[in-house]
């Protein structure tokens, strides 16, 4: 039989998972399949925890058991990013808190609000705006660290902060690496050749010939 505390916990969990899957995750990462997965996982865990958690002494054991089993299932499925793994465990934790309804009526809403606040701050784009990361495959095998940083900096259009070389293939002439860099907000404009002069034969620092200078007009 559901009590007022358990009903409040269930309502708090449903509100929290909608906020987690919608405004927090989908608005930032734009994956509808995972948004649906987070909601379904949360509701399923909450229902199972609420149905089985009423027995005496099953609270802690049930929570740890469900957490471990579902973690193994998630790790054996399609790979997802580390940020999505964090959202996955957040949805799982919210479901367990809402289903088990620990303590007084206010415990579940406070814990859910705290978890959502931590996720919202940790995944805020304002914290990582000045730094980005990506995995690159270069069509050249580079052993010199300084040269590799220059090449990667030119490719990403930013300042390289860290490089993690994963593989260097000298046979296929490939370099696979992960790079952390800071984008240049105001890149230097690329100069264009004068009118009528081919770009291949023109250099930005070459002196201009007087014959190609455009005529000027003075209005009186």
UniProtKB/TrEMBL annotation:
Domain of life: Bacteria
Compositionally biased intervals (Pro residues): 187-196
Keyword hit for Transmembrane helix: yes
A Pfam family assignment: DUF4956
Keyword Oxidoreductase: no
Keywords tagged on the record: Membrane, Transmembrane, Transmembrane helix
Spans annotated as Disordered: 187-220
Record field: transmembrane: 6-26, 33-50, 56-73, 85-105
Name the UniProt record assigns to this protein: DUF4956 domain-containing protein
């Amino acid at each position: 039989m559901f009590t007022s505390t358990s009903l409040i916990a269930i309502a708090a969990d449903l509100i929290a998972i909608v906020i987690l899957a919608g405004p927090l995750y989908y608005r930032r990462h734009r994956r509808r399949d995972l948004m649906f997965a987070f909601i379904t996982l949360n509701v399923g865990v909450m229902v199972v925890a609420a149905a089985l958690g009423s027995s005496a002494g099953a609270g802690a054991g049930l929570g740890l058991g469900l957490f471990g089993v579902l973690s193994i299932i998630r790790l054996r499925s399609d790979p997802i990013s580390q940020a999505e793994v964090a959202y996955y465990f957040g949805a799982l934790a919210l479901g367990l808190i809402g289903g088990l309804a620990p303590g007084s009526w206010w415990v579940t809403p406070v814990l859910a609000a705290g978890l959502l606040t931590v996720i919202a701050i940790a995944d805020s784009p304002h914290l990582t705006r000045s730094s980005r990361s990506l995995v690159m495959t270069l069509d050249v095998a580079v052993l010199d660290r300084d040269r590799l940083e220059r090449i990667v900096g030119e490719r990403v259009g930013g300042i390289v902060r860290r490089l993690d070389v994963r593989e260097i293939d000298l046979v296929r002439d490939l370099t696979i690496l992960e790079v952390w860099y800071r984008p240049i907000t105001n890149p230097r404009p690329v100069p264009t050749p004068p009118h009528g002069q081919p770009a291949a034969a023109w250099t930005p620092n070459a002196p201009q010939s007087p014959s190609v200078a455009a005529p000027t007009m003075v209005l009186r």
